[in-house]
Amino acid sequence: MGAANEAERRKGADTRERLLDAAESAVLEKGFAATSIEELIAAVGITKSGFFYHFPDKGALAKALLERYLEREEELFDDLFARARDLDDDPLHAFLIGLKLMAEMMSDLPAGHPGCLVASYCYQENLFNRDVRDLNREGVLRWRRRFRSYLDEIAARYPPKVDVDLDAVADMFSALADGGIILAKTVRDRDVLPGQLMLYRTFVRTVFSGTDR
Amino acid sequence: MGAANEAERRKGADTRERLLDAAESAVLEKGFAATSIEELIAAVGITKSGFFYHFPDKGALAKALLERYLEREEELFDDLFARARDLDDDPLHAFLIGLKLMAEMMSDLPAGHPGCLVASYCYQENLFNRDVRDLNREGVLRWRRRFRSYLDEIAARYPPKVDVDLDAVADMFSALADGGIILAKTVRDRDVLPGQLMLYRTFVRTVFSGTDR
DNA sequence: TGGCCAACTGTACCGGCGGTACAGTACGTT
DNA sequence: AACGTACTGTACCGCCGGTACAGTTGGCCA
Questions:
Q1: What is the pTM of this model?
Q2: Is the dihedral of CA A22, A24, A30, A32 positive or negative?
């Protein structure tokens, strides 16, 4: 059907990706409103008309950007915790390994974590329509469900030593990650984010195993 | 010297405060770049000339806004932890009371927490000059020093049961607060932020007293 | 080889906004 | 009556986001 030109299609998809790349870093550095279409097309090397060929308006760019970001995060989490589970079949130990891998990954980013789009969008919510805001919300709720399922599995084998709401403990990861990114960026110290993730790790360990180390 | 009109001066200071009020809520809702001078003067009921009488340019508004915000936060923390200390002279118990007061205060905000300017500015850092970025950094470092001093006092009486970096535990409050605000805003659930603060409280309790309740 | 289609370019235009410049004014204090 | 504060009014500039739409390039297939 339609079929048409494969090489052209690849080229188009590539340009679109490069627009999203340029947009992502710009948005994380100065926000969506201050990210001009002109700078994006200059970075990619196309004209303004070219931009509007790929996105009907700036809002469509915002949506596509967030969708791609959330998908990539999901893949990263899937991958990382699957690897951790391969290393240890015990749910608690696997989770602790996963958190350590995450902290190491953050620590290895040479320029520090570039930022979280969810947090960026959150502080500019009125710029976006309902679609995008709901997308953001669903993204966070998916993180909650993911961590909650890990924690449920852990709690089944290790009854919590402390009285905590597991949804809150699940959210705590996201909160510490987003908060840690903000602190790391503003004090300009790459080590803050991995430090916070490792603190989450010791919290989870003490909640379920009650022991240090 | 100069002395001059007292009533006029009060009126001018009042208009300036109202400009800052309008700017603060607007910035937290859609970011600094998307906050137009025109909407601020419309909200306050003055003309554009009036705005530029109070601030030489938009950058000066950004700086004044952040300065006021940081001062108010400082006062709030001073006040709240002083009250907590009045209720219990033990540093650990006082700190735990302070955290509970904080959580209750956040819980009582009818529309949820309006947002943290530090976080908002962090995700728009390239819009601001060095002055403002350094101000933001100093603000966060002041929070760290404050909580670190509480924790040092606690650690002197209650040796930590878990091996943790006290600077990281101090930062953890800020990270959970900022992260909690983001989660609460994006999932649109006021209870998330107080929940995270209470989790920080149980973490601190288990680190220093090692017991649940 | 001719036509199709994806992926653009070129040109023109609009309105909003940040910012500048500066003259004028209302009003309380001295 | 004079002075300073806190503005208003008017006019203007340049940039940028956004729209509209017609034209062009270059692989691919029949």
A1: 0.93
A2: positive
